[in-house]
Amino acid sequence: MAEEGRSGDGATDDSHRKRDGVDLISLLPDEILQTILSSLETFIAVRTSILSKRWRHVWSGTPSLYLNLYTHGPEGDSINNFIERYTVRKMMSFELWAHLRDKRPYVDRWIEFAMSRNVENMTLFVFNDGDQKYQIPDFFYINNSIRKISVNGLYSGLTIPSYVSWTSLKMLALRNFSLYDECIDKIISGCPVLESLSLSFCLELMVLDLSKSLSLRTLEIYRQTWFQGPKQIVAPHIRCLRLKDSQLPCTLVDVSSLNEARLDICFYGPENPKDDFLQVMGLEKLQNVEKLTFRENFLKILSLAELRCVPFPSFKVKNLTLVTMISQYVIPGIVRVLQNSPELKKLTIIHTSELYIPYSPLSEKHIDTYLDLQSLSVEARVFENIRDWDIESKHVASFMELMFKNTKTLEKMVVWLKSYDHGRISAELFEMIPVLSEKNNVTIVLNSSASKPRD
């Protein structure tokens, strides 16, 4: 029998934590410890140097630096002191959050330091000080090691030098900038291997011409009423488009290689959506897309277009995802999309208002006002007059039946329900699923787990 305080193999409990007076964490190789420290804010990682002689220099070999100096952190001179002790010659990532109020003399130096260490991933979030706007230094635009850049301009203007050279850059994200068409032209010309471009809330941009970016595959555009650009997209080589738009249409001029698209529309103010919206946007440009995601606001626009008899194109979509609360305001649009998708194989319905909440949704009140002005009633065109989709079994089954009636080639339906409704889903519904599946020759997956699908 083992003695008290010992494990079955005769070792003391304390020996599992220490060996020869050294804790087992400290026995880990530097590479593992440095990977762990990289997940911490850098000035916290630096504090580990006082733990023991073993830890004195471990932090200096971390592959990443994360300086969060917006609300706290050491003074600029202190940071200069410890980055002078940083030994890594090839840095994986550098993330800087700083306020110009007391860090302006240091910010450029820290950026230059990271670039001198051949950093691959860089994130910059520099908070402006009143009317003083941070201007990215010219040296930032010439670097052959950087692969990923994310910069939040906080409504600053982006002044691009005449020459840009990011020969290894694959991912670029710009947020909150005054960005002119010529700025994008300069950037694209200096990024020969760029694969992903994200533009969020960028002013002034009118025509986004990416025709010369031969390697670009993913484009993300986020707009608002106050940030209306771009208004036209020319991107013949992209495969994936994510467009979160405002009420002003963004015309898809050329997206001829597109294979996947995720679309939503946000609305502000009392303006009513125009019934020719789909024609203005160029929805026919999505005819050959095989994977489509439509969110609630976009589905409401599709419903209005259907009620106004706006022509819909036919789609070659095989995988369709609908992220929406099911109501009478989205059903006509959904039905028309299904009827015009003769090759559809998989339909995923994410029924939740939690996964995505638009900044300003298109309200039912605005839709009713629009319908009244047009002397139309949404109930007159809604199949079975389905109103807000209750989580009760019969309503879920009823909606599924409606979907089956309007598609001929569906092979699989996946339905995601809100996690907090898990307890309300009755055994009756699970008994219905096999019957519906066999009757319609469709595989049905009902997911009510707490985890949410990735957007």
From TrEMBL:
Signal peptide: none annotated. Residues 22-69 form the F-box domain. PROSITE patterns: FBOX (PS50181). This is F-box domain-containing protein.
